[in-house]
Amino acid sequence: MLLDRVEKVFDVRKKTGFLKRERRQVRAVDSLSFSVARGEMVGYIGPNGAGKSTTIKMLTGILTPSGGRLRVAGIDPTRERMRLAHRIGVVFGQRTTLWWDLPLLDSYRLMHRMYRIPDARYRANLDRLVELLDLGDLLDTPVRQLSLGQRMRGDIAAALLHDPEVLYLDEPTIGLDVISKTRVRDFLRELNAERATTVLLTTHDLQDIEQLCSRVMVIDHGRLMYDGPLAGLHRAGESERTLVVDLEREVPPIDAPAPARVVRVEGPRQWLAFPAAESAAPLVARIAAQYPLVDLSVREPDIETVIAKMYAERAGQADQREAAAQDASAAGDVSAAGDAGDASKGRDEGVGRVVS
Ligand SMILES: Nc1ncnc2c1ncn2[C@@H]1O[C@H](COP(=O)(O)OP(=O)(O)OP(=O)(O)O)[C@@H](O)[C@H]1O
């Protein structure tokens, strides 16, 4: 998958008076370039309105880019949308591609015909997907009677019946309970290992990314802000996870090794913040050894917070660079400004690419 300076500009007309309309342009995707290799599983995240859906719609051929070059499985999505449809699968967590009133199996039969999947391949894929996604008891149930988790598994199977080499997943675990989420994630991991399916995953749940993707891309205002491992993103944003600890009884705030610290206490429950780029294991082991532990869970920071912190961090670095440049020019020394810039660059590149 390759994007080279891809743009998408929407013309928006807004009513501003009785007969007046104002024309405005929205640059939903702005000179976006990245490539994803065959078999990679990449998280594609960003705040609301960042341009994620617009990117995916261009990658499927639903939308035509306003500029730049785009290839998926070697195909130009705009020119050969139908040929591309046989090579890609798409799952939109919030909408179903299944026929609402038909039993699940009937939807699959329709897709068998629509995609002209050879009979033997259809049967082999259906058997495998039904087994892996545990759909056996649901095949005769109308889609509208399925729970959200069951419907999601049904949709994922539908997207994979024709053996696509690229899969776009838009919020595949949204609204699912913990068990259903685990099932979907386990399946995706297995699919990727077994078939080397390339996966582009859009999600607001950072645990999806943590458990599935070795690489994450952050987009905001249509631009690529970060490309690298999730831990690097946490480091770049200095984000924190929260360990929620339930103890047998009320005790004074837990004495945690810095930078971990208690941020809230409510009866026997305590909340500890710790750096998201670090493992929770040493902290958990220490608490388990020293306190009457009953239960605990780890909460991920939300994407908006991570990105907001990343901006703040970058603004801070820019201020530092500017201050260093001013100091240097006041002292008549040009190299100090260059050093400040290089230091922050080296730090960014060590973990991933913070794109400016
Ligand atoms: N058809 C359209 N016409 C005009 N503007 C659009 C259209 N589709 C998207 N936009 C605008 O483009 C920008 C990016 O939208 P997009 O849906 O790609 O964001 P997103 O990252 O998928 O957001 P979300 O997480 O909320 O789904 C937004 O400002 C949106 O209002």
From TrEMBL:
Source domain of life: Bacteria
Region (Disordered): 317-356
Topological type in the membrane: Peripheral membrane protein
Keyword terms: Antibiotic resistance, ATP-binding, Nucleotide-binding, Transport
Biased composition (Low complexity): 325-341
Subcellular location: Cell membrane
Name of the featured protein: ATP-binding cassette domain-containing protein
